[in-house]
Amino acid sequence: MTNISAPPSYLNYDPATRRLRLDPHEQRFVQDPYEAYAWLHANARSFFWEDFGFWCLAGYDDVNRLLRDRRFGREKPAGADDQGLAGDRSHLKAFDAIEANSMLELEPPVHTRLRTLVNRAFVSRQVERLRPRVEALANELIDGFEAGGQVDLLPAFAAPLPITIIAEMLGVPVEMGPQLLAWSHDMVAMYMHGRTRETEDRANAASQAFSDFLRAYVAERRKNPGDDLLSLLISAQEDGQKLTEDELVSSAILLLNAGHEATVHQTGNAVRTILKQGGDPRRFFTTPEETAATVEECLRFDAPLHMFTRYAYGEIEAAEGLTLKQGQQVGLLLGCANRDPEAYAAPHEFQPGRSDQKNVSFGAGIHFCIGAPLARLEMQTSLKVLFDRLPQISLAEEPLYRDSYHFHGLERLTCRW
């Protein structure tokens, strides 16, 4: 690591006002955010990030605590600070309609009802039944490229596996996978820094097409229910209440989007991390316990999501010396918290099985990632199959990260064996 007494050249910080200027599109930061994070841990554990327009927390304890603090939430309160993103949203009608019923953007009691209805499909015992299917699919994908000797693992392996699994779970056609991915990519672009009107128009068009597709599919499933998740959501009740059609569509889109987006990034990041260790990659996957520990350390070491935001629901002290007003937004830096030297021994070293493993990559509290058991199982199974099948695999070129903060993933992952 570089000397943390001096900030990286691209980072400008005023200690008197605690205001930070750090362009999230700066290539040195895109390729290695951990250099800046190390400096922040030593010098500015809470700061106002001017490029985003809100306060951010860098330390593990603060991030973990605010994720669980019910005085902060995802649902925008009246008079909330929009960081200049307010104004005419008529061109985002379809996108906003989906967001309005997404459990990710809601708080209790509505959030509780939605999550209870959806959660029954994602409890660990339900997910565990998918392990043989994930293993078979990983082998099928490798069969498709093994003879070539070289492949970009992102489109050939990391992307098709989770989108296939979530499509099969929901009961939508697997051949729709590429179209579902395209819609999802256009929608999640709304959460990235520096979005444009073109980004918004594409997201709204994708939202409309995605919604239309699912409404037609829901109508079909109502007439001919199966044993899939969509049929379960249609029939599920909580205290006599069912999901409305709008809630059903929003929940299905959230599950499809979240069911692959972060997993694709994390799988790519994990392969890069493991291959960077050198030696036989199979040594990290010799037992189920070692496999699980390796995946947890991959999640901590190079997380797929680096920022998650909350609104303050009152005047609250968010961190030492930082009081937020009602409606202010705060950025919780998950990838930064996972490398906090006050929370982890040797935080910048890859140490599977570390005794201080407590990463916040899936969040915490009532918005803890509902698909975490599935994501963990997919990674444990697919990575073990990959390295068992291709123990000689190596990086064919240095992988570069995409300019997509706060999603943190690779542009491509070209490997050979």
Describe this structure in words.
The protein has 417 residues and is an alpha+beta fold. It has a single domain (12-416), classed as Orthogonal Bundle (Cytochrome p450), CATH 1.10.630. It has 17 helices and 14 strands. It has helices spanning 27-31, 33-43, 60-68, 93-99, 110-119, 124-128, 131-145, 153-158, 160-170, 177-188, 197-223, 229-235, 245-258, 261-276, 288-301, 334-337, 372-389; strands at 12-14, 19-21, 46-49, 54-57, 72-73, 150-152, 237-238, 241-242, 308-312, 316-319, 322-324, 329-332, 394-395, 414-416. The strands form four sheets. Strands 1-2-3-4-12-9-5 form a seven-stranded mixed β-sheet, with helices on one face. Strands 6-14-13 form a three-stranded antiparallel β-sheet. A two-stranded antiparallel ribbon has the order 7-8.
